[in-house]
Amino acid sequence: MKPPSPSKAGCGPFLLFGALYAAALVAVWVPWFLGLIGPEMAFSPSSWHAHEFLFGFMPAIIGGVLLTAVPNWTGHPPLAGRLLTMLLAVWIVGRLGLVGSTALEPLTVALLALLFPVALIAVAGREFILTRNGRNLTILAVLAVLVGAQGLFHWELWRFGRSAHGTRLAVAALLTWTVLGGGVMPGIAGGWRKARGASHPQVPSSRFDGVTMGFGLLSLGIWILQDDDVLNERLTGALLLAAGFALTARLARWRPRHAPSGRSVTVPRVSYAFIPAGFLLAAWASLSGDTAFNAAALHAWTMGAIGGMALTVMTRTAPGHTKLASTASRLTTGIHLAVAAAACARIAAALDPQRTMLLIPMAGALWIAAFLTFALLHGRRSGRWMSEPVRPATPD
């Protein structure tokens, strides 16, 4: 079956709007957090920022990737036209619901925000059911967990004024989807080697990978519940520390010394490195009792790992979901490194609050520049999603 043209695929509008929104939410949050502006919302700056990163920006990216991949998995035409426009409108309504949160009931705001992931699950799930495609249900499971995490986020916000467990559950779900499973990184390295005929093949998946992933998920589960005193803090810290070292060893197994020098392989490896870094920072927070390291771990996982790997997936999905180029341009590499630098600056701000006024604007500027550049690079191609007719895939 021929893959759908990238300009006709569902990735176009969602990746474009997702990139623009990633830049916009940071452009609003930084001056709001620093007290320079005061938007009227029923959310604190940190709560709005966390919600829109986890439940606004990332679901848009998942939607773009999913709607582009589904035609290749099912052989059905890609989503387009009015239905695609309606799905995009539902996502926008969720964002507007938070903007108008002072004039709406908390339950109304929550329901408006939940409409998009529920609709996305329904659209993709219908395709999988019609084609009896059960192999790719993992991403729908992640979306279902995100729906639960988002509902928990809104309930905690209404009940306690802040969300801890909903935020952490969403972070864990997104880490599982983007990078903890390791599917993206080995796939990119393997594709490079296949295209270039590298003499050092990628280390195949083994029981070690499965054990490491399971241990990472177990440690994340403990991290989600750590404020409930489920385990002793020292034991929690030991588990997180061991997971951090295990994930570092897993990264080393991908043969960094023998890896190709291609930028398309090096960049996602940098993003992946933020995962063990986050585990080590969270471990130190539990062992030392210094909550600043918890904030540092959270931003290592969100900005560094999830944001960085999301950008990797975006840049590889936007040109087309099949036979992707095995090289990255210098500009594309630059925006990935900007996100990594932004994450480092934000981690440093968490650990050194005295330099907040310098480091947070620096992190925000790098993040905004990266995603605006992506939008400029791929906006023209994505803008053709309404103008071109959609035809069913035909046999080769």
Automatic annotation (TrEMBL):
Highest taxon listed in the record's lineage: Bacteria
Presence of keyword Hydrolase: no
Keyword tags: Membrane, Transmembrane, Transmembrane helix
Pfam families named among the record's database cross-references: NnrS (PF05940)
Transmembrane segments: 12-33, 53-71, 83-101, 107-125, 137-157, 169-188, 208-225, 231-249, 270-287, 293-313, 334-351, 357-377
The keyword Transmembrane helix is assigned to this record: yes
UniProt name for this protein: NnrS family protein
